[in-house]
Prior knowledge:
By secondary structure, this protein is of the alpha/beta class. The chain has 15 helices and 8 strands.
Amino acid sequence: MESQRSQQALAALHSFLNTPLDSVLSRHFDLAPDQAALALFHTVAANVPAYRAFLAEHGIDPSAIQTFEDFKTVPAITKQNYQSHYPLADLCRDGQLASCDFIAVSSGSTGQPTFWPRFISDELSIATQGKAIVVTDVGQHQMVTCRYAKFNETKSNITSGGLGTMGFALPAAIGAKFGAPKRTVVAIIGDGGFQMTIQELGTIMQSGIDVKIIILNNNFLGMVRQWQQLFHEKRYSFVDITSPDFVQVAKGYHIEGRKVSERDELQRALKEMLDHKGSYLLEVMVGKENNVFPMVPQGCSVAEIRLK
């Protein structure tokens, strides 16, 4: 129970403080769960002003937390008692966090806060109560979605893993809807992958099937761009995309749609999509140079995994 409790504490700190765990893990990966949780607590308290303020509100001096028994006296961090006081988006915009990458997504070379793909995954999980069938294409969005989407029913995560090609999601989502007609089916696709099988909008129009489509548009072939940044000194080659107006293309197939680029529009847009009777396309503009981690470089072993 102690080990389980410490692991839950570790997860809670990571999930709600959004501390960049790459540096923490590199220093504490060899520690037992209880020790790791304590080490992470001190790392967060030292680097996140908002968390120190949270502790001060509860009369806690971080330096007094020396053992795991001490750590267990620290109030649990929840969305209610943390984000209500220190909204995540505000912390990111104000630059109070060293990074807002949730491990999986970092701001790339710009170093500027952007609309992170995980926001979409989190909000979709809340809006669907984790009951939707989520189909991913191939690329950065695939890694983020599979890592962070919440699933409360079986047979809900459809992905090609490492065996598929760009363009997988849209036809797969159509098949999923035919296989489970009473469930909500959401295809999450990148702007590059969507154009690989965009003609399947005709299948949706012809069949009248109800598939929700979310395009995460960063105007790049994101995964290829990330490799070129990390391993080829950012010598970008054929990864910058000029895309059509996806919403207007969808309307040409009698599919309603909407485009959002601001964080505060997302919840309403997702609700509109999910409440709409019939297929719907939601295009979400995300940061151009977000990077996705962890990843194993080509020709390397798992022991050489990259966290940043």
